Structures are given as structure tokens and as C-alpha cells.
Amino acid sequence: MFARTRLNLAPVQFSRIITRNNAVPKCIRRLNSTKSTTPPPPPPPRSPKGKILLFMGVLALGSTVAASLRSKAEPKSAVEPTAKQTVAFPEGEISVVFVLGGPGSGKGTQCNKLVKERGFIHLSAGDLLRAEQARQGSKYGELIAQCIKEGTIVPQEVTIALLEQAIKENHDAGARNFLVDGFPRKMDQAITFEEKIAKSAFTLFFECPEQVMLNRLLERGKTSGRTDDNIDSITKRFRTFVETSMPVVDYFDKQGKVVKLNCDQPVDSVSEQVKKALESRGI
């Protein structure tokens, strides 16, 4: 039996022995050789999208900074621009008094007295519409005639255009105080007139019992020649006034711009009420 001899070689010494004696297997040497000679694959191409986004971000940041510096450097205007004024007559340039009341309440009679005694310009919406209806070549003539006959309201575009033209013509001639009779008859008319033409000073509201108005209109119809002075048209006009014009009176009354007159009285008595109303409003 041979005695076993134990070799106590340090790891470093063993490594040197293997190296000296070329003890590294050939397969391992070939693998190391392949790794050292084959170049690594090229990196994947970088998408230009990231560069574009980065460039746009830098550009936006630069624009913001430049705008901020520019706003600090430029002095602000002392006067800010105001909205364009569209009203035809600024407040205080003319005085417009709306005259409202049911048909036959005496509006026309009192307006004529103010024209003679105080120099007012009396613009009756009904008279303007009838004149337009009779004007040769008017494109609104047939429409106006139909509305008058049926006791309905003419579209506001027509009525307001006629009133604006009449006010401008009289204002150019030196007139300042206007009585607008029988208008506005609807809320849209009231709002549009005050937005585009002029603010009203106040409204004279002629209160009168319906039966009194009916009797007056039937009596007037004997000589007036008006197509709407008949029982059927009068009844429709009463209903239209209550449904559409009374909301206008209430609208201005809430603004403190209505003076109510008791018109179931003689003409002179109503005239005194009208004069006091104008004096109370400084007109």
C-alpha cells in the first residue's frame, strides 16, 4: 500500500502551475479569443422625436421669458380703451318721453297740446307706420297693413327704424324734446330702443276704463277713416295692449320711470296732470 502524500499548494501557486504548463483547456481559450475579437453591436438609432420635443420646450420657455421681460419694460397706458359706443344719442343729448295707454285713452289729444304749448316733437308710432304703408314702393306696406287690420304688433325692426330716422331728422333741425306715442308696445322694443337710440326720460301712462276707450274709438271711427276703428279691431287691440304693453309699463314702473294719469276726465283736467308730470321730471 502506498502512503498518500498530501500536497499543500496555495491557490496562487496552483494557478501559476496551470499557466506554466498550458493546462487551460483549448475550448476556453477559443471562447476568450472570440469575445476579444468580435466588435459589439452598434447601439440602436435614437429617434429624433425626443430632440424635437426638447427643442420646442426650450423655444417656448424662451418666448415666455422674453414676453415677461418685455411687459415689465413697456409702460402701461394711463387710459384703458373703452367699448365702442353704439347708442345714437348719448344720455342728456335729447329727452324722450314714452306715451303709453290703451287705444282711445287720449294720448294723441294730449300730445298735440304739448306740441302747441311746449314745442315738443310728437312722433306717433302708428302714424309713422301708416305713412310707411302708404309710401309708394315700400317693402313693408303689405305687412304693416295686415298687422294694423288684425290689431297685432308690427315687427320691431320696422318700427324702430322709422322712429330712429324721424328723431334724427328732427334733431338735425334743432329739436331736443320728443314724445314717442304708442311705443314701446313690447319688451323687446323697449330694450332695443334704449340700447340703440336713446334712454327714455320717463313714461306717461294714460289709465282709462276699457268701456270709455271703446266709446271714444267708435265715435272717432265715424270720421277718422281708419281701418282699425271698428269693433273687431278695437277688441283685438285691447287684448294685445294688456298682454304685451302692460309688462312694459311694469318694467319702467319698477325703475321709478312711470307717471300714471287718470284719463277718465275732461281733456283740460288731463292736461293739468300732464304738465305737473313734466315739471316734476324737470322737462
Automatic annotation (TrEMBL):
Q: How does it assemble?
A: Monomer.
Query: A Pfam family in this protein?
Result: ADK
Reported EC number(s) for this entry are 2.7.4.14
Instruction: Give me the reactions it catalyses.
Output: UMP + ATP = UDP + ADP
Q: Region LID: list its residue ranges.
A: 219-229
Where does it sit, as one GO cellular component term?
A: nucleus
Query: Per UniProt, where does ATP bind?
Result: 104-109, 220, 265
**Matches recorded under PROSITE patterns:** ADENYLATE_KINASE
Provide the coiled-coil residue spans.
none
- Cite the InterPro entries for this sequence: Adenylat/UMP-CMP_kin, Adenylat_kinase_CS, P-loop_NTPase, UMP_CMP_kinase, YKL023C-A-like
Name of this chain's protein? Uridylate kinase
Q: Determine the domain of life of the protein's source.
A: Eukaryota
Region entry NMPbind: which residue ranges? 124-154
Keywords assigned by UniProt, alphabetized: ATP-binding, Cytoplasm, Kinase, Nucleotide-binding, Nucleus, Pyrimidine biosynthesis, Transferase
Cofactor stoichiometry and binding? Answer: Binds 1 Mg(2+) ion per monomer.
Cofactor(s) essential for the protein:
Mg(2+)
A Gene Ontology biological process noted in the UniProt record is:
'de novo' pyrimidine nucleobase biosynthetic process
According to the UniProt entry, the note on domains is: Consists of three domains, a large central CORE domain and two small peripheral domains, NMPbind and LID, which undergo movements during catalysis. The LID domain closes over the site of phosphoryl transfer upon ATP binding. Assembling and dissambling the active center during each catalytic cycle provides an effective means to prevent ATP hydrolysis.
Q: Give the protein's biological function.
A: Catalyzes the phosphorylation of pyrimidine nucleoside monophosphates at the expense of ATP. Plays an important role in de novo pyrimidine nucleotide biosynthesis. Has preference for UMP and dUMP as phosphate acceptors, but can also use CMP, dCMP and AMP.
Question: Which protein family is named in the record?
Answer: Belongs to the adenylate kinase family. UMP-CMP kinase subfamily.
At which positions is a ribonucleoside 5'-phosphate bound? 130, 152-154, 182-185, 189, 226, 237
**Where is this protein found?**
Cytoplasm; Nucleus
- Which GO MF terms are attached to this record? AMP kinase activity; ATP binding; UMP kinase activity
